[in-house]
């Protein structure tokens, strides 16, 4: 049976990708973020996962406002990165594991999640930057399963729905007949708003509450509606939905490995969280 090792979550601000490309990690602006990531990166590298299931949101590269699946799962041999307009270098395609993807898809459908299945899928900064952070020395040594959540075009899925998806996904991973070691990575958040009158809005108090509950009691975060999350976390802070789903995948319990909170990177309260499925 496969093993769900644990979960990671990290912000995916495009400027992080530019800082990596321009080797600016040691500069005053960037050091608190990159240093704060180290223990999570060391932990996951030591765990040697075979597969990373990446819960992220597509920002208009693969899906646009004309067609927006609520949950879309990749089942491709590989996932191409493409120029998405942030000046980010285009990375090598990421390896997929279609057989594993399809088994997860089957399990999620069996639990009544009507997913969009993607045999071709391109990936943006929401997917790429976290993998570059956790495996900075080259292409990640894992196969990937991208799962895109709609956190962009309202109505977005409720926190309760995302939590339920996470629970189902965690059970599906551990029921998999392979002997794969799997990590679930959530990307995005924490609080941020990029546009409108509240551009630059962040909410450290709410972020701290989330970081606490994501380890101790993620269900406590499931009462928020999409509208309430926009109010509390900012219009892009809805990306916390992936963090809630990631935490809910843990089948045994949650042991905190590491967390860091640093405000701001670009317009975002940047955080990292690593939890063990223990
Ligand atoms: C920023 C944050 C995001 O989550 C994103 O997708 C794009 C930009 C930012 O803070 O600049
Ligand atoms: Fe984003």
The unique ligands bound to this protein are: 3,4-dihydroxybenzoic acid, fe (iii) ion
| Gross CATH architecture | 3-Layer(aba) Sandwich
Helix/strand/pairing class, anyone?
A: alpha/beta
Q: How many domain modules?
A: 1
State the CATH topology: Protocatechuate 4,5-dioxygenase, Chain B
Number of DSSP E strands: 11
Low-confidence parts: none
Number of helices: 8
Give the helix level as a range of percent: 25-40%
Could you list some keywords that capture this structure?
278 residues, 8 helices, binds 3,4-dihydroxybenzoic acid, binds fe (iii) ion, 8-stranded mixed β-sheet, 23% strand, 11 strands, 3-stranded mixed β-sheet
In short:
This protein is α/β, with parallel strands linked by helices. Helix content is 34%, strand content 23%. α3 (98-110) packs across α5 and α5 runs parallel beside α8.
Detailed description of the structure:
By secondary structure, the chain is of the alpha/beta class. It has one domain (3-277): Protocatechuate 4,5-dioxygenase, Chain B. It contains eight helices and eleven strands. The chain has helices at 14-21, 31-47, 98-110, 125-134, 159-174, 204-216, 226-233, 240-248; strands at 3-10, 51-56, 71-74, 78-81, 94-95, 116-118, 122-123, 143-149, 181-187, 254-265, 268-277. The longest helix is centred in the first third of the chain and has 17 residues, at 31-47. It is globular. The model has no long low-confidence stretch (mean pLDDT 97). The chain binds 3,4-dihydroxybenzoic acid and fe (iii) ion (FE). 3,4-dihydroxybenzoic acid (DHB) binds next to helix 1.
